[in-house]
Amino acid sequence: MQAELEEELRQAERDFVRGDFVDVTVEELDRCIAAGAWPWSDASSE
Fold it and tell me: What is the per-residue pLDDT for 45?
């Protein structure tokens, strides 16, 4: 389990370096959570 979490963190760091992330405010994130919607438009392709 620890190895999986570490790999997920490494992947997130690579994504961040590439600029592959979504910048949302706390308010936007709260609205996404309340609506049950992803904050990025291409989530259905994952």
Answer: 44
